[in-house]
Amino acid sequence: MSQFTSSLQWKSDQADFELRTFNRNHIIRFPNGTVLEGSSAPDFSGNPERNNPEQLFVASLSSCHMLTFLAMAAIGKWKVESYEDEAIGFLEKNGNGKMCMTRVVLRPVVCFSGEGPSQEELQKLHEKAHRGCFIATSVNTEILVEPPIE
User: Would the pTM of this model clear 0.85, i.e. be above it?
Assistant: First the structure.
């Protein structure tokens, strides 16, 4: 078993505490010293200059898929030169009327040096990466992987 930690700090900076006006800014710290400035999404009165939980959720899924994909490619002896993803998450009401991240679409573009996998092998590599991604298997969100077809 592995454990992962972060710490979060929020402090009021106003006399009143009202839904529409309370300060959403907070700090997230990680054991390695990294500090993220967080807030809620602008649609929910957040600070657009800061990262919001929805963005971090999408980034977490994208990063986990990439790292799992790279491991699978290394096992298959394919040398990856670069990997880019323009992921997008959709926050909307689910079937129970609750707001949630209903789906995340990953759009990975992978460049290989030398002979890379065939399109079929590439698709299978992404499928294996999706099944092996710890974060993807931890959430109910629909995750679609849509690499470009060449």
Answer: yes
